[in-house]
Amino acid sequence: MKIEVIRMENLIAVTGMGVITANAKNIHEFQQALKEGRDGVKEVSLFDVSSFACQTAAEIKDFKPHNHYPSQYDRAAIFALEAAEMAIVDAGLDLTKCEKERVGVILGTTMGGVISLEKFYYSFKYNQRQNITPGLECEHTLHGMTDHVAERFQLEGPKSTISIACASGTQSIGYAADFILQNRADIMLAGGADSLSQFVFSGFSSLRALTRFKNKPFDKNRDGLILGEGAGILVLERLGNALRRGATIHAIYRGYGFSNDANHPTNPDKEGKGLERAIHYALKDSQVAKDQIDYINAHGTGTKANDVMECNALKNVFGENAYQIPISTIKPMVGHTLGAAGSVEAIATILSLKHNFMPPTLNYQMKDPECDLDIIPNQGREKELNIALSTSSGFSGNNSAILFEKYKEGAL
Amino acid sequence: MNRVVITGLGVVSPIGIGKAQFWASINQPAQMQNDRVAVKIIKNFDFFALSAYPEDVRTRQMDRFTQYAVLGGKMAVEDAGLVINPARQDRYGIIYGSAYGCLESNTTYLDGLFVKGPRFVNPIIFQNTVSNTTNGYSAILLGIGGYNTIITAGATSSLNAIAYAYDQIKCDRADAIITGGVERYCETILESLRAGGMLSTSSQPMAQFSEKDRKGVVISEGAAILVLENYEHAQKRGAVIYAEITGYGMINCNDHRRGIRNAMKQALMESRITPAKIDYVCASANSVIEHDRDEFLGIQDLLGEKAVITPVGSIKGKLGETFGASGAFATITASLSLQKEVLPPAINRVYFEPDWCLNIPYQSSLTRKINVALVNSMGLDGNNMSLVLQTVS
What we know:
Mean pLDDT of chain A: 95
Order of helices and strands of chain B: EEHHHEHHHEHEHEHEHEHEHHEEEE
Largest interface: A-B, 76 and 68 residues
Strand content of chain A: 15-25%
Number of strands of chain A: 14
Structural class of chain A: alpha/beta
Number of helices of chain A: 13
Largest sheet of chain B: 11 strands, mixed
Oligomer: heterodimer
Helix content of chain A: 25-40%
Mean pLDDT of chain B: 91
Structural class of chain B: alpha/beta
Radius of gyration of chain B: 20 Å
């Protein structure tokens, strides 16, 4: 009995999830889209793409927020606010009953309020200061979205923002969980958000990282990624707390890790040593053995370098067993949502555990001998899942990994 | 739980490169400052000469933001005498904080986008538009592949980073972490403060620090990097220990009086000491009058009767506002104060409200043996942080 109580207080439950992506406006649509393998890739309408070879992205169209926000609020911040609200509602949380200083928020983002930065910089650079609406100066920062979420829901606990490029969304969840485990908070919102922008689109295009065709992760003929946008936010709390208030428990958070390749300023380390370290940290933190992993939700951007690096990292960690573990990536469906990717994929991982269904890696045609793992091509698969891993890797060699476990009632 | 100590300091600032120059600068007696400027930047900065890194494929594309962090990190590691064993590199980490990150590169990139058009942007500059490039370069050049991240939380960013690093070592995920803050000035920061009404309204952007119009921030820049280390690890290799970190507090609240008071209380509670034990407070002192009032009243609330005798200091009068690096600069100051038993003056302290019953030495340094120091940091976005440093017993 006593051990059970300790475990209840030391385990962290995911009790709420909110998500917005190009193929889903809420968690139910998201689950449906993953199941059907429906992608949200369309022609870009947010800005002019006529001069680019790639003209598609997983853009969120016809977006109608549930609330009215001040006009200067950045697009990414609105995604974060909407996802946070959905997560809080999903968790059935009454924040007025919580001690404010014990509820916090950690978000991850790559570009933050980059659309606002374009606007703000253009306005003062070209002497159009009259276009600077009051408050715009706070929108272009990376942490603006986190400030808005904390302000709107009156969260007075730990507030911080992680910006390690495409690995941000994964690490933010672990960072938030640490605050609960260290007894610095009771409830944490965690996740990530990013928006499409001309800034990022032109940059990835200049790096020749965008595909003109379909995004084909792990395929021999993969030739680049498709950008996306959106937000994914989770509610974390102690399992004991969740049970006491009768919340629905989506999954148990087990642990995380983050690292750097320390290898090359811009290219991923082909050997995958950095990601390998992040996964090792996550396994150690979770006290989970390698052979307990049932499914891996990979980063899988569909660029030449990333996918090889990832497969090598997984082979380094899991050895021969790497070939037995099903792996998939949802990027062909939701695009590469940068700072949101890790948290959107964490939500996809949790849904996989909950529904015993692994989403497919879409658009797969030809096997690449360097990426010869079981990548669940084109058709999703049902399997009894217990523990799953999600990984992310970004620019400048940053990696993160996170582990979730299925919650089974009464089986602590 | 491991004990966490500070064993290395690296400083890159407009008032001195390296801890010795920096310490000498902040301890200069107060003089009337005639050079009222809105911005203090590091002049004649030559990264390759200062760092002794060769200019090659690994280092050539770094922006100034990254150069500050890399140089600061190198100095801190050298100051700590830390030798990174490649076979154990997973036991070391890098956790930085910055409020604006690589904003300068972002706007350089936008210049290309606006002028030449989206087809002709520079991919090399684009690669510098994520703030963690600084982590990537630091990891490569310092040979540290372990825990690695960058935090942005406005003006408290670097204390957030130090706190995160502290927690990682405390629960034994790492033996040592290079942490702190870095900030690089660019025009967009000035314009943001202007739009937010943080600068003087006169035609010349000029920070005011006079009695009547105290509104005005002197924008500064630089990197303040520390080596945080597991106490036993430091002891085993015979390292010089500046101070021990024993706790921190973190409250997000726009009522800064309550926010900073409760953050200080949290930090003291974790350190298991009473407010009466505090010997020195290195204040946030944002030089925004509402903030200063709230902070001072918060300190008074906490210290009670002892408020009139406990020295409260700030180096922002000398250094300026370094935003995401300011908390780390204050932590370095407090660490050196604990070691050298000298408290630097809060120069430029001209205006003082009669109901502030605080002891703020502002004309010259004060020689005093201190054992417990509080470091505060407050941000415009509502964050309040406080860190407790103690001499190692």
